[in-house]
Amino acid sequence: MNREREHEGVGILRQEADDVGQRVHICIGAICNNNCIFCMEDDRQARRDAVEAWSKADVLDVIAANADRNEILFTSGEPTTNRDLPEYIAAAARAGYRVIGVISNGRLFSYAPYAVSLLKAGLNNIIVSIHGPDAKTHDALTRTKGSFEQTLAGLRNLSTLKAAFPLKLQTSTVVTTRNLSSMRAFCDLMADFDIDAHAMNVMMPDGGGRKHMARLMPRYRDVAAYFAGIIDEIDTRVAGRMALVDIPYCATVGLPDSIRGYVERYFHFEADGEFERKAALAGVHRNDSIDESPELFVRNAMDGSSRVINRVTRTYQESWVKTKRPECALCRHDPQCRGVWKAYVQEFGWDEFEPVR
């Protein structure tokens, strides 16, 4: 079932699976051909080490072991730089996943034969990261000259290929202080593309976003005010498929419900040692009393060996870096809201956040 709304009509649901147990993320991008300044995985060597710790057999086994799920998404770094991606997509198709997706910067999709090869293998959901309406804005944020032109060409190819393949095409834009004022122009640019959804992701103060928070982190109230000011002016095709993401509901009260953010839920796998390393850095211990705590998952390989890994939900991992105050319990959105980034509160305080009765 493709559900388009969640939580009493607030927010557009961009993922197909609406239950945390039905969407699995597989991290396969050891490297990335962009170098986004706000990237949450800003430690490029640590990301590479974590991804390369998994063999092709590990990935194929996890794909097969979770075949009862509705949706699979290949992510981390740039998945299209992994030469095994076509094989992983084909394996997911054979396993019976209904939705097979990838989060990509879209650059390699500028080569139409490559895009067609993945679509023929079974790829049917593509989220393309694009961060501005022009090369000056986008390339400055990706710190990669020429990336905008390749990403835009990739979007053009995919938009055209939708006529021949059952493809859901989405964009993902990280909103920062540097590109907020150009979001109107970005919406104008997207109007003529055949795209199903536009997620405007307010920058997360984590990784590179945390490192450069002082000059890149927009105030939530400024983001909400900006989009409230342009929503009636932009093309209705774009307005109807757009949502603000990673911004607390209470900070977007003045916006139409149709574009207010949504709660994305999924789980991914961490090797046992890698999970412990990340937890230690965050000051979290496995016995902490947190909902959706990690589950152990034993991968039994075809050669008879086994490996213990952790099934970790996004809700659990975000509980390390987000917080609420007592007044949040009075808000009607409290059951869905994961709270506010601790780093954001430390920088700006709680003044923007009032409970919605």
Key phrases:
alpha/beta, 12 strands, 10-stranded mixed beta sheet, disordered N terminus, globular, TIM Barrel, 14 helices, single chain, 357 residues
Tell me what the CATH architecture of the domain at 20-265 is.
Alpha-Beta Barrel
Output the helix-strand order.
Answer: EHHEHEHEHHEHEHHHHEEHEEHEEH
Mean pLDDT: 85
Given this structure, which CATH class of the domain at 20-265 is correct? Answer: Alpha Beta
Radius of gyration: 20 Å
Strand percentage lies at 15-25%
SS-based structural class?
alpha/beta
Low-pLDDT parts are: 1-20, 287-291
Global geometry? globular
Q: How does the major sheet shape up?
A: 10 strands, mixed
List the helices and strands and how they pair.
Layout: E1 23-27, H1 44-52, H2 56-65, E2 71-75, H3 85-95, E3 99-104, H4 112-121, E4 125-129, H5 135-142, H6 147-161, E5 168-175, H7 183-190, E6 197-202, H8 208-211, H9 213-216, H10 220-230, H11 236-239, E7 242-245, E8 267-271, H12 272-282, E9 295-300, E10 306-313, H13 314-318, E11 322-323, E12 340-341, H14 342-348
Parallel strand pairs: 1-2, 1-8, 2-3, 3-4, 4-5, 5-6, 6-7
Antiparallel strand pairs: 8-10, 9-10, 11-12
